[in-house]
Amino acid sequence: TGSSRPQRMLKAVQKNATKGDPKSVISAIDYYCRHKEWAMNVGDDKGLILDSVLTEVNPSTALELGTYCGYSSVRIARLLSPDSKLITIEFNPAFAAIARQIIAYAGLQDKVILVEGASGDLIPKMKERFGIKSFDFVFLDHWKDRYVPDTKLLEDCGLLKKGTVLLADNVICPGAPEYLKYVRNNPRYESRYYPSNLEYTKVEDGLEKSVFLE
Ligand SMILES: O=C(NCCc1nnc(-c2ccc3[nH]cnc3c2)[nH]1)c1cc(-c2ccc(F)cc2)cc(O)c1O
Ligand SMILES: [Mg+2]
Fold first, then answer.
1. Which of 19, 90, 96, 165 is deepest in the core (most CB within 10 A)?
2. Which of 33, 91, 172 has most ligand 1 atoms within 8 Å of its beta carbon, as the pocket-test mutant?
3. How far is C-alpha 209 from the geometric centre of its chain's CA atoms?
4. What is the pLDDT of residues 125-157, one digit of tens each?
5. Residue pair 212/166 in contact by the 8 Å Cβ criterion
6. What is the three-state SS of 97-125?
7. Would you call 178 a catalytic residue per the annotation?
8. Is the ipTM of this complex over 0.85?
9. Residue 93, CB half-sphere, CA atoms under 13 Å: how many?
């Protein structure tokens, strides 16, 4: 059997990036996915918005739902301060295996805790397993029909505090219409849409930033 798209992406990183240099890992993936083979990373355009929100929030504990190959894990972890941590949840073991290698290649394995499993099962275990009181930042980039149930679960598990920032990818394409309705009509959130484009394409997409108010 041949290689998979994530395996080819890892090869491109090992060939074109410098070990321990997160910026070169990000550029190698963006180059490969723009010129060789599209893949569902948040990408360079939306990545700049992710970077600016992260710099503003400067989270001590961040959560990512949907690791895929680790592109956004690297984008997030490279901007975290020394004792901060990113916990990233990935459902697909094959994706997780590649993501671990890409995160390690970037030299960020000490800042990233990659957990394999379903978000719905793992979110309620965050406190007991990782000693998390609450998250300062959550990046939603997993199955789009999980955005609402997992946001509600984070609320119910007391994992959001006043000022926690949720940033959701793909609210236009593939789209998360129920999520937009949920956060935009909810007095507990202050939401704002950041227009951009679907990674490596001219198709419209964007990020929704929602601040938890209580
Ligand atoms: O499906 C996406 N992302 C999700 C992957 C994932 N990686 N991990 C999970 C997970 C992780 C824990 C989970 N727990 C329960 N379900 C889970 C699912 N899901 C996605 C799709 C597109 C896309 C756009 C246009 C197209 F024509 C085709 C595709 C673009 C994007 O930026 C995406 O993020
Ligand atoms: Mg996405």
1. 90
2. 91
3. 13
4. 999 999 999 999 999 999 999 999 999 999 999
5. yes
6. HHHHHHHHHCCCCCCEEEEECCHHHHHHH
7. no
8. yes
9. 0
